[in-house]
Write a structure and sequence with these properties.
HEAT6; mainly alpha; 1172 residues; Leucine-rich Repeat Variant; 61% helix
Length: 1172
């Protein structure tokens, strides 16, 4: 008994002595008790069992603190020793060892090493097989803790656990009588499915076994002997298991029934325990855009028991109750249990406002909800996975902080039900990410309602949770799932259309999608008004931004964006920085979606104070309406007088907001929620400033006419940003500069519809760029520490207006060119690519393109970049080489021949060799390399062609083009190769028609024009075939006949395609082929006529019908340069007729007469039908 006495002494001593020692040496108690346990040897005596009992009790009750200073290997060693001391016939001790295993691994967050895991798993599995059933719950808890994060090391035990007669399969079966055992077994299975990065995952057969087991649990109703909380925990574990399979196991849901069954149970679980909602779901959801539950009973609306017997008037009174304030430090469960959020009255109120098209800001209800202080629940309300690192800890039904009163139990129940809903939503989010979008959108109507009325499961959607769920965390999870569905949905939603009233016997799919979009707008705006949690509010606004980014507003009725715009305005001054940032993101989405939209144009022109100055309807955190007009320190607004609105012109509210956010000092000290505020920073939080700069960039890109008024003011903003120390701010400033520069270039393009007086004057553009070049832009270009900034600055420098560049001082021009040529040698590939591209822009400038020295320097720089290892650098360099060769062609067309004479022949040879090599590269490089080859061969002068060193390179260049025309490459590559071949044919100095490569070139083009799948490539090849201007260029009679017959065949096959996207090019193709045939006719010799006659005898009717179509209509949207006017078209036929009539036919040949009659008949029919 001495040992027993010694073991008891710690219990008999002062109970608080041990905790006082902990600060002195963490884990001392554990090590002392562990040493005593390791000193014991297996002994079946009563005294030994008593000592083990006491030691295990002490180890369980020990205070380990945060980690406890205990090494993981010491825990594993202790557990192995404990199992060795406890034989399996001692049920009580086995239960206690299991409890210790669960407690230590759970509290100390230990993952057992592989060597000890093997012994402990074998022991635990044997314990389940041999011990009494009452111990199974504790043993399963221990097993769950052991396999957590160790799934890959349990392979040899999987048959015993998950096989056909495996322990976990039997214990988790529906037939299992003990609900706690069943729940614990499912918990073990879920932990087995958990993935660990870098470790092999569960084998596929076991994945499928677990998936089916989890699915069965979710599909099964609660058994009578199971209490509600245990059932909730069972569902949570099953949901966690499926989520692990989808996330870590990358499980693919390829079978429709399998996916449909999962989605059905997830939708049902999403509404588990939600007051007022009880839906009946089919076993499997099938993908269809049409209503699929018409035959099922409607949603059962259940009133809470406490209010079921109240008269209707009480409900009306209840809607007036203000939302409860959440005090800092309150627990999430308390908030959730404080009563359901009265969403229905809010919905009714919000719906009335929205349906009336109200442009007012949120109602007084929003004011009340915005006054709630959410800072105290920041950690609880934040959107996180319901299964965090501590989610695997088992909490038994007895371990609870809730009171045992009826109210406490109800509160606890609601909390567990909310966790099931959160688990279902987290699992649904994983499902969304694991399946293709086109598969997901087949289930759109099951999760996104297209009608506001209740009455079928269709109308119970993710938005129902967002509006009605009492838990802010669940609402945020629902919004996350909805955002994931909306992300990347632009193509799917693009079919929506409701611009005209549809009065039909059925609802078209496009109208149904449009209804869904309208309903999403309505519900999200209602949620925005009603939400009190800042974290959930942020999710609502992010979800709205996703919706706005993907909705086809150009096909929808007006007012949707206006409502969003007016509702979001007050939130840009919300006290929570995350809400403010997401509000700016949403405003950025509005001004970037399908820009420019007339509706948004009008919104941008609204008075600055609209929606902000009304203290009754705006958020109480707003300052007075002129808050953005406070003048900053320094000469910020001095230049603005050049371009700012004057007189009656109303300044743009959004631009003013963004400018003030970027440059004005913050109004007060950084609050606790302003996480982006750096210590000592005088500006707004960095995320807000970055988002404001992005909005300005979107405005410059989509609504330049609005932004141009603030050009010089924005120049100040850019200079300020690029002069700051924060690289992110600098980068966004450079991006804004690039967008403004691009907008100015667009205004001066020849095809611009803008009146000259509406453009920004060139003098002002010169002033703008002078400010940039004399400011921090050169420093950013030379900032080698931040290559991304350097690259962005290069892109910005390339967006300078050519007309403005020529008006800059010569030293600024030289600076730009010198910096770009220097950066082309950068070791950083990102910078090198940007510099190469910028040089390709500059070489097209009218003031630089005739400068032989600059063009030669640029050519050498580009050729060097073409040798780079980076594909991105080579692709940019090839594009620039194509531009440079375009410049050579433009210079050919000028009357002054000095450029051609001065340009180095050796450099031309070098360019040809580089272009040939680049034409063998990847498609990104190849497409521009062949463009350059075509231009270079077109540019060659007779003096070059006569030189022997050019003969071989010309042959190689043309062979490279021929092979590119014929290979199965990207269509852009083949299109460019056909275009290049047409350019080659334009050079009269080349021996076209007599050179051996002539027949190969024509064969390649005729092969493409008759058989290429892409009609745009066919059009380009037909264009190239009509380039040669003399009969001898087409070669022999046989060669001519081959080209003629190929074009007739191509005309006959001009509608043969399986790709409906190509049909829109049919008319263009026929027009170009007809033009090519008429061109051939206008050059035909007497010996060519028999072949033409033979073709017309076989296909005359077909050719005539297409020629008549060509004469009557031409091509719509043709990009080939074919003549469109009726006079030009019939003149082509007349020219061909006159030429054939003038040909001296061979004796006895009737071909000439037949062809003349054919053409004459076409003209007669055409003029008769047109009434001329």
């Amino acid at each position: 008994m001495a040992t027993v006495q010694m073991a008891c002494s710690p219990l008999g001593g002062p109970p608080r002595e041990a905790p006082r020692e902990l600060p002195r040496e963490q884990g001392a108690g554990f090590r002392r008790l562990s040493a005593r346990l390791r000193a014991l040897r297996p002994d079946d005596s009563s005294a030994a069992r008593t000592e083990i009992h006491l030691l295990l009790d002490q180890l369980i009750s020990e205070n380990y603190g945060a980690g406890g200073g205990v090494a993981p290997e010491d825990v594993s060693t202790l557990l192995v020793q404990a199992c060795r001391l406890v034989p399996l016939n001692q049920n009580h001790l086995v239960s206690k060892v299991s409890q210790l295993t669960h407690h230590l691994l759970n509290t100390l967050q230990v993952i057992v090493d592989e060597r000890n895991l093997d012994f402990l798993l074998a022991y635990t599995i044997s314990a389940i097989q041999q011990c009494s059933s009452w111990t199974h719950v504790k043993i399963l808890q221990a097993l769950a803790a052991l396999v957590y994060g160790n799934g890959s090391r349990c392979q040899k035990y999987l048959p015993d656990l998950l096989g056909k007669s495996g322990l976990l399969m039997k214990l988790s079966d529906l037939a299992q009588s003990d609900p706690e055992v069943r729940r614990a077994a499912v918990h073990c299975m879920a932990n087995l499915c958990l993935s660990v990065p870098g470790q092999p995952y569960l084998e596929e057969p076991y994945q499928n076994i677990c998936f089916q087991a989890f699915l069965t649990i979710l599909q099964s109703p609660k058994s009578p002997d199971m209490d509600d909380i245990t059932f909730c925990m069972l569902l949570q574990n099953a949901l966690k298991g499926i989520q692990s399979l989808l996330n870590g196991g990358k499980m693919k849901l390829t079978q429709t029934d399998e996916l449909g069954a999962l989605l059905a149970v997830l939708k049902k679980s999403m509404f588990h325990g939600l007051p007022g909602i009880n839906i009946e779901m089919p076993t499997v959801l099938y993908p269809t855009p049409l209503p699929q539950y018409d035959g099922r009973p409607p949603v059962k609306l259940q009133l809470p028991e406490s209010s079921a017997s109240r008269p209707a008037m009480n409900r009306k009174k209840k809607s007036k109750i203000k939302p409860r304030k959440i005090q800092p430090g309150e627990e999430e469960e308390e908030e959730e249990s404080s009563g359901e959020r009265e969403a229905a009255p809010v919905t009714g109120l919000g719906r009335a406002n929205l349906h009336e098209g109200s442009t007012q800001s949120p109602s007084s209800l929003a004011v009340q909800s915005l006054r709630l202080d959410g800072s105290g629940t920041a950690g609880k309300d934040g959107v996180s996975s319901p299964f965090s690192s501590s989610g695997w800890k088992r909490v038994s039904s007895s371990d609870s902080d809730y009171s045992d009163t009826e109210g406490g139990m109800q509160s606890k129940m609601r909390s567990y039900q909310a966790k099931v809903r959160q688990g279902a939503l987290a699992c649904f989010l994983s499902t969304i990410k694991s399946i293709e979008k086109k598969v997901l959108y087949g289930y759109w109507s099951a999760f996104v309602s297209d009608t506001p009325e209740l009455g079928s499961p269709q109308s119970v959607s993710l938005m129902t949770l967002t509006l009605k769920d009492p838990s802010p965390k669940t609402r945020a999870c629902a919004l996350q799932a909805l955002s994931a569905i909306l992300e990347g949905s632009k193509q799917f939603l693009s079919v929506a259309e409701d611009t005209s009233d549809h009065r039909r016997a059925f609802t078209p799919f496009s109208v149904m999608i449009a209804s869904s979009i309208r309903e999403l707008h309505r519900c999200l705006l209602l949620a925005l008004v009603a939400e009190s949690s800042s974290q959930t509010l942020t999710q609502i606004i992010k979800c709205l931004a996703n919706l706005v980014s993907n909705s086809p507003y150009n096909r929808l009725k007006l007012s949707l964006l206006t409502k969003v715009w007016n509702q979001i305005k007050p939130y840009v001054r919300h006290k929570d920085v995350n809400v403010r940032v997401s509000s700016l993101t949403l405003l950025g989405a509005i001004v970037s979606t399908h820009a420019p939209l007339p509706e948004v144009q009008l919104l941008l022109q609204q008075p600055c104070s609209s929606g902000l100055g009304n203290s009754d309807s705006a958020t109480p955190h707003l300052s007075p309406p002129d808050w953005w007009k406070k003048a900053p320190a320094g000469p910020f607004l001095e230049e603005a007088s050049v371009s700012s609105p004057t007189g009656s012109a109303e300044p743009c509210w959004l631009i003013r907001l963004c400018i003030s956010t970027v440059v004005l000092p913050k109004e007060d000290s950084c609050s606790g929620s302003d996480a982006g505020c750096a210590a000592g920073s005088t500006y707004m939080p960095s995320p807000m400033r970055l988002e404001a700069l992005q909005v300005l960039a979107h405005l410059a890109k989509g609504y330049f006419s609005v932004a141009q008024v603030y050009l010089m003011e924005l120049a100040e903003v850019i200079c300020k940003c690029m002069g700051e120390a924060d690289p992110s701010i600098q980068l966004h400033g450079a991006k804004l500069l690039e967008e403004l520069g691009t907008g100015l270039i667009q205004q001066y393009k020849p095809d611009s519809s803008l009146a000259p007086e509406q453009r920004v004057p060139v003098t002002l553009v010169v002033l703008f760029w002078t400010m940039m070049l004399s400011g921090p832009l050169p420093r950013a270009l030379q900032n080698a520490e931040h290559p991304t900034l350097q690259a962005s600055a290069c892109d910005a420098l390339s967006s300078i207006l050519p007309e403005a560049f020529s008006s800059l001082r010569s030293d600024w021009q030289i600076l730009c060119i010198t910096v770009l040529l220097g950066l082309n040698d950068s070791k950083n590939r990102l910078v090198k690519a940007a510099a190469s591209r910028a040089l390709g822009v500059y070489v097209l400038f009218p003031c630089l393109r005739q400068d032989v020295i600059f063009v030669a320097d640029t050519a050498n720089a580009i050729l060097m970049s073409l040798q780079d290892k980076s594909l991105n650098v080579r692709a940019k360099a090839a594009w620039s080489l194509g531009n440079l060769t375009d410049t050579l062609i433009v210079n050919m067309e000028t009357p002054d021949p000095s450029f051609q004479e001065e340009f180095s022949g050796l450099l031309l040879l070098k360019m040809l060799r580089s272009a040939i090599e680049a034409s063998k590269d990847k498609d990104k490089v190849k497409s521009n390399a062949v463009r350059a080859l075509g231009n270079l061969l077109h540019f060659l002068q007779p003096s070059h062609i006569e030189k022997p060193q050019f003969a071989e390179i010309i042959e190689e260049s043309i062979q490279a083009l021929i092979s590119t025309v014929l290979i199965e490459a990207a269509m852009k590559v083949r299109w460019n190769a056909c275009y290049a071949m047409g350019n080659v044919f334009k050079n009269p100095a080349l021996p076209l028609g007599t050179a051996p490569w002539t027949s190969q070139a024509y064969h390649a083009l005729t092969s493409v024009v008759t058989s290429c799948k892409n009609f745009k490539v066919r059009i380009r090849s037909a264009t190239a075939l009509s380039v040669p201007g003399k009969r001898e260029h087409y070669g022999s009679v046989d060669q001519y006949a081959q080209i003629w017959n190929a074009l007739v065949t191509a005309l006959q096959k001009s509608e043969d395609t399986t790709d409906f996207l190509e049909f829109k090019y049919c008319a263009s193709l026929r027009t170009q082929i007809c033009q090519a045939l008429l061109h051939l006719l206008s050059l035909a010799s007497a010996s060519d006529l028999p072949c033409i006659k033979e073709t017309l005898e076989l296909n005359g009717d077909m050719v005539q019908s297409y020629f008549l179509q060509f004469l009557k209509s031409g091509a719509e949207g043709d990009d080939t340069g074919a003549p469109h006017s009726p006079q030009e078209r019939d003149q082509m036929v007349r020219t061909a007729l006159e030429h054939i009539s003038s040909v001296q036919a061979l004796a006895g040949d009737t071909a000439k007469r037949a062809i003349v009659a054919f053409l004459d008949n076409i003209l007669t029919v055409y003029f008769d039908s047109s009434g001329s």
